Amino acid sequence: MGCEVSTSHGVVQVVQEDEEDTGEFSDTLIDTIRSTWPLLSHDYVTVGLEVFRRIFNEIPTVRVLFDSFGIDQAETLERHQIFREHVQKFMHVLESLVENLERPEMIQPHLIALGARHAAIVGFHPEYFRFYSKCLLEVWEAELGEEFIPEVRECWEKVIDYIVRSMSHGYHICITHQLEHFVKETPIGKLV
Question: Where does the record place the Globin domain (predicted)?
Answer without folding.
Answer: 24-172
